[in-house]
Amino acid sequence: MNDRLKNEIAACYSGRLPVVSSSTQHFGEEPPLVGTQGAGNIFFGNCNLRCVYCQNYQISQTHKEQIKNEVTHKRLAEMMLELQERGCHNINFVSPTHFAPQMARAILIAAERGLRLPIVYNTNAYDSVEVLRLLDGIIDVYLPDLKYAENDAGYLYSKVKGYKDSARQAIGEMFRQTGDQITFDEGGLLKRGLVIRLLVLPNDIGGIRESLEWIKDELSPRVAVSLMAQYYPTNVAGTNARYVLLSRRITETEWLRAVSLLDELGMEEGWMQEYDGAAYYYRPDFSNGVTPFKDIRDFAG
For the purposes of burial, counting CB atoms within 10 Å of the CB of 29, is it exposed (0-12), middle (13-18) or buried (19 or more)? Predict the structure, then answer.
């Protein structure tokens, strides 16, 4: 086992200090995170997965390049405050798993200096339940991917063992902390809750039905789901014959089949992208009294 306090490089190729590839106003997240001023995204470098179709592989799988992007905890806190000054609606940590302790320390520093925005934990869900318990009360919005319904797929396409089991346990802990209610402010911006992302993969590699059934039966049909159509065969998915099942975009039929499952299984909350991935639509449950934005273009100002 590596001792990162001694700056020994771990399996995620990360040491004691956080690696930040960029911090920016981002408009590609779900509408209630984007609002009019964008989410305050902080993209961590490196990753604890090795997804063969990673859309951010230039920062997640290039550790020799990313080492130059190490920052101090103080500087990470300053980035949060700068995003707040720019009007961002939240601080959205992207791929935070391997830097969770560093993230928490920087949040404390930033809070002492006036940070008041909701904190979003935007993760691949291959997280330690023990660490997530320590984040209880620090994280406002959990935004995990649930990539696969089978461990074998996680091993083949993301190079980790036991993905399904680990991710479900982690999301179960997130659910324990938030419950099935998502909270909006008066402007329709997300303040607290759990939103589970499901990326539709070609040939149903992810097992959308199985994941939705697990969410409904083991968590709640009211848990918000974000169904995404934006897959494309980047990284090595489009060039390595071993991953031929992932070598194309999804078809419209595959997408509509996934969408139909939301109604079939009675999922009540969440968002889905258009088939071309360009816009989000809200699947409203008006019983919570919220009048939601239905189209990402409603945020145009």
Answer: buried
